[in-house]
UniProtKB/TrEMBL annotation:
Residues 1-29 are annotated as: Disordered. Residues 99-213 form the At1g61320/AtMIF1 LRR domain. InterPro entries: At1g61320/At1g61330-like, F-box-like_dom_sf, LRR_At1g61320_AtMIF1. Pfam families: LRR_At1g61320_AtMIF1. Residues 8-29 have a biased composition (Basic and acidic residues). This is At1g61320/AtMIF1 LRR domain-containing protein.
Length: 223
Protein backbone atom coordinates (compact mmCIF):
# COMPACT_ATOMS: atom_id res chain seq x y z
CA UNK A 1 0.00 0.00 0.00
CA UNK A 2 2.89 2.33 0.84
CA UNK A 3 4.43 1.85 -2.60
CA UNK A 4 1.18 2.69 -4.35
CA UNK A 5 0.97 5.98 -2.49
CA UNK A 6 4.56 6.83 -3.31
CA UNK A 7 4.01 6.11 -7.00
CA UNK A 8 0.97 8.39 -6.98
CA UNK A 9 3.13 11.16 -5.61
CA UNK A 10 5.85 10.54 -8.19
CA UNK A 11 3.43 11.12 -11.07
CA UNK A 12 3.15 14.77 -10.15
CA UNK A 13 6.04 16.52 -11.88
CA UNK A 14 5.76 20.26 -11.14
CA UNK A 15 6.79 21.06 -7.54
CA UNK A 16 4.32 23.97 -7.41
CA UNK A 17 1.38 21.60 -7.84
CA UNK A 18 2.65 19.50 -4.93
CA UNK A 19 2.69 22.53 -2.70
CA UNK A 20 -0.84 23.45 -3.69
CA UNK A 21 -2.28 20.25 -2.26
CA UNK A 22 -5.24 21.24 -0.10
CA UNK A 23 -5.29 24.86 -1.32
CA UNK A 24 -9.04 24.83 -1.86
CA UNK A 25 -9.03 23.96 -5.59
CA UNK A 26 -11.40 20.96 -5.65
CA UNK A 27 -10.54 20.03 -9.25
CA UNK A 28 -6.87 20.03 -8.37
CA UNK A 29 -7.45 17.84 -5.31
CA UNK A 30 -9.37 15.28 -7.36
CA UNK A 31 -6.53 14.91 -9.85
CA UNK A 32 -3.77 15.08 -7.26
CA UNK A 33 -5.05 13.16 -4.20
CA UNK A 34 -8.63 11.92 -3.89
CA UNK A 35 -10.60 13.05 -0.88
CA UNK A 36 -10.51 10.60 2.03
CA UNK A 37 -11.08 11.13 5.75
CA UNK A 38 -7.96 12.26 7.59
CA UNK A 39 -7.75 9.10 9.73
CA UNK A 40 -7.57 6.94 6.58
CA UNK A 41 -4.70 9.01 5.13
CA UNK A 42 -2.98 8.84 8.50
CA UNK A 43 -3.30 5.04 8.51
CA UNK A 44 -1.96 4.81 4.93
CA UNK A 45 0.96 7.05 5.88
CA UNK A 46 1.75 4.94 8.95
CA UNK A 47 2.19 1.86 6.74
CA UNK A 48 4.97 3.48 4.69
CA UNK A 49 8.65 3.00 5.58
CA UNK A 50 9.98 6.04 7.40
CA UNK A 51 12.04 7.42 4.50
CA UNK A 52 9.08 7.15 2.11
CA UNK A 53 6.77 8.69 4.72
CA UNK A 54 9.14 11.63 5.16
CA UNK A 55 9.35 12.22 1.39
CA UNK A 56 5.56 12.10 1.13
CA UNK A 57 5.30 14.70 3.91
CA UNK A 58 7.54 17.02 1.89
CA UNK A 59 5.30 16.70 -1.17
CA UNK A 60 1.82 16.83 0.30
CA UNK A 61 0.16 18.92 2.99
CA UNK A 62 -2.14 15.97 3.69
CA UNK A 63 0.83 13.75 4.57
CA UNK A 64 2.65 16.59 6.33
CA UNK A 65 -0.17 16.76 8.87
CA UNK A 66 -0.09 12.99 9.44
CA UNK A 67 3.74 13.00 9.64
CA UNK A 68 3.44 14.87 12.92
CA UNK A 69 1.76 11.74 14.31
CA UNK A 70 3.88 9.13 12.47
CA UNK A 71 4.18 6.13 14.86
CA UNK A 72 7.78 4.96 14.20
CA UNK A 73 11.06 6.87 14.07
CA UNK A 74 14.19 4.94 13.10
CA UNK A 75 17.09 7.41 13.29
CA UNK A 76 20.09 5.61 11.88
CA UNK A 77 22.84 6.83 9.54
CA UNK A 78 22.24 3.82 7.31
CA UNK A 79 18.59 4.73 6.73
CA UNK A 80 18.83 8.54 6.74
CA UNK A 81 22.00 9.27 4.77
CA UNK A 82 24.30 7.88 2.16
CA UNK A 83 27.85 6.84 2.98
CA UNK A 84 29.14 10.09 1.46
CA UNK A 85 26.98 12.26 3.72
CA UNK A 86 29.00 14.17 6.30
CA UNK A 87 28.21 14.21 10.02
CA UNK A 88 26.86 17.75 9.95
CA UNK A 89 24.23 16.82 7.36
CA UNK A 90 23.20 13.75 9.36
CA UNK A 91 22.94 15.81 12.54
CA UNK A 92 20.73 18.38 10.79
CA UNK A 93 18.41 15.65 9.51
CA UNK A 94 18.14 13.96 12.90
CA UNK A 95 17.62 17.34 14.56
CA UNK A 96 14.74 18.25 12.25
CA UNK A 97 12.81 14.97 12.51
CA UNK A 98 11.94 14.98 16.25
CA UNK A 99 11.31 18.74 16.16
CA UNK A 100 8.83 18.40 13.29
CA UNK A 101 7.09 15.51 14.99
CA UNK A 102 4.48 16.46 17.58
CA UNK A 103 5.30 13.42 19.72
CA UNK A 104 1.61 12.50 19.57
CA UNK A 105 1.10 8.97 18.28
CA UNK A 106 4.79 8.02 18.44
CA UNK A 107 4.98 4.37 19.53
CA UNK A 108 8.49 3.26 18.55
CA UNK A 109 11.78 5.16 18.67
CA UNK A 110 15.08 3.65 17.54
CA UNK A 111 18.19 5.80 17.66
CA UNK A 112 21.61 4.54 16.57
CA UNK A 113 24.50 6.84 17.46
CA UNK A 114 27.01 4.15 18.39
CA UNK A 115 30.50 5.65 18.83
CA UNK A 116 29.33 9.04 17.49
CA UNK A 117 30.36 11.20 20.42
CA UNK A 118 30.07 14.42 18.41
CA UNK A 119 26.26 14.15 18.66
CA UNK A 120 26.16 13.98 22.46
CA UNK A 121 25.58 17.75 22.95
CA UNK A 122 22.34 17.40 20.95
CA UNK A 123 21.22 14.01 22.21
CA UNK A 124 19.41 15.15 25.37
CA UNK A 125 17.23 17.58 23.39
CA UNK A 126 16.47 14.91 20.75
CA UNK A 127 15.33 12.47 23.44
CA UNK A 128 13.29 15.10 25.27
CA UNK A 129 11.52 15.99 21.99
CA UNK A 130 10.88 12.41 20.85
CA UNK A 131 10.26 10.41 24.04
CA UNK A 132 6.77 11.45 25.04
CA UNK A 133 3.85 9.82 26.92
CA UNK A 134 2.36 7.05 24.80
CA UNK A 135 5.67 5.67 23.53
CA UNK A 136 5.87 1.88 23.81
CA UNK A 137 9.30 0.86 22.50
CA UNK A 138 12.58 2.69 23.07
CA UNK A 139 15.84 1.34 21.60
CA UNK A 140 19.09 3.32 21.85
CA UNK A 141 22.59 2.45 20.57
CA UNK A 142 24.90 4.98 22.17
CA UNK A 143 28.33 5.02 23.84
CA UNK A 144 29.43 4.23 27.38
CA UNK A 145 30.51 7.83 27.93
CA UNK A 146 26.92 9.03 27.47
CA UNK A 147 24.75 9.19 30.58
CA UNK A 148 21.19 8.26 29.69
CA UNK A 149 19.02 10.93 31.40
CA UNK A 150 16.48 9.38 33.75
CA UNK A 151 14.42 12.57 33.34
CA UNK A 152 13.38 11.23 29.92
CA UNK A 153 11.39 8.57 31.77
CA UNK A 154 8.66 10.94 32.94
CA UNK A 155 5.46 9.77 34.64
CA UNK A 156 3.59 9.49 31.33
CA UNK A 157 6.46 7.65 29.63
CA UNK A 158 6.79 5.19 32.53
CA UNK A 159 3.07 4.46 32.22
CA UNK A 160 3.30 3.56 28.52
CA UNK A 161 6.76 2.17 27.72
CA UNK A 162 6.67 -1.61 27.29
CA UNK A 163 10.14 -2.28 25.91
CA UNK A 164 13.39 -0.53 26.88
CA UNK A 165 16.61 -1.52 25.15
CA UNK A 166 19.83 0.35 25.93
CA UNK A 167 23.11 -0.53 24.23
CA UNK A 168 26.44 1.09 25.15
CA UNK A 169 25.64 3.87 27.61
CA UNK A 170 25.72 4.74 31.30
CA UNK A 171 22.45 4.38 33.18
CA UNK A 172 22.06 5.58 36.78
CA UNK A 173 18.47 4.89 37.93
CA UNK A 174 17.70 6.03 41.48
CA UNK A 175 14.91 5.18 43.88
CA UNK A 176 13.05 8.36 42.89
CA UNK A 177 12.75 7.05 39.30
CA UNK A 178 9.29 5.68 40.08
CA UNK A 179 7.40 2.64 38.82
CA UNK A 180 7.67 1.50 35.20
CA UNK A 181 4.13 0.18 35.25
CA UNK A 182 3.94 -1.22 31.70
CA UNK A 183 7.53 -2.37 31.18
CA UNK A 184 7.54 -6.05 30.18
CA UNK A 185 10.86 -6.25 28.27
CA UNK A 186 14.19 -4.83 29.45
CA UNK A 187 17.50 -5.25 27.63
CA UNK A 188 20.77 -3.75 28.95
CA UNK A 189 23.74 -4.57 26.73
CA UNK A 190 27.15 -3.21 27.70
CA UNK A 191 25.51 -0.62 29.93
CA UNK A 192 27.40 0.86 32.85
CA UNK A 193 25.15 0.26 35.85
CA UNK A 194 25.93 -0.83 39.42
CA UNK A 195 24.30 -3.78 41.12
CA UNK A 196 22.41 -1.45 43.45
CA UNK A 197 21.11 0.61 40.51
CA UNK A 198 20.05 -2.52 38.65
CA UNK A 199 18.22 -3.75 41.75
CA UNK A 200 16.45 -0.39 41.99
CA UNK A 201 15.42 -0.58 38.32
CA UNK A 202 14.10 -4.12 38.63
CA UNK A 203 12.19 -3.37 41.82
CA UNK A 204 10.35 -0.61 39.93
CA UNK A 205 9.51 -2.93 36.99
CA UNK A 206 6.69 -4.97 38.47
CA UNK A 207 5.29 -6.17 35.10
CA UNK A 208 8.68 -7.33 33.75
CA UNK A 209 8.55 -10.60 31.77
CA UNK A 210 11.83 -10.64 29.82
CA UNK A 211 15.27 -9.46 30.98
CA UNK A 212 18.51 -9.46 29.01
CA UNK A 213 21.74 -8.28 30.64
CA UNK A 214 25.12 -8.43 28.92
CA UNK A 215 28.57 -7.24 29.92
CA UNK A 216 32.08 -8.25 28.90
CA UNK A 217 32.01 -11.67 30.57
CA UNK A 218 28.41 -11.83 31.71
CA UNK A 219 25.35 -12.79 29.72
CA UNK A 220 22.03 -13.29 31.50
CA UNK A 221 18.60 -13.80 30.03
CA UNK A 222 15.37 -14.42 31.92
CA UNK A 223 11.81 -14.79 30.70
Amino acid sequence: MGMQCEQTLDRSEPRASCQRDGDGDSRHEETWIPYLPEDIWRHIHSLMPMDAAARAACLSRTFLNSWRCYPRLDLDPGTLCSKKTDEKHFRCRVDSIPRNHSGIGLKILKLNLWLRKSYFPYLDSWLQAAVTPGIEELTLWLCEEYNFPCSVLSDGVRDSVRSLQLIFCTFRPKSELGLLRSLTRLSLCYVRITGEELECLLSNSLALEHLTFKREYISLQFS
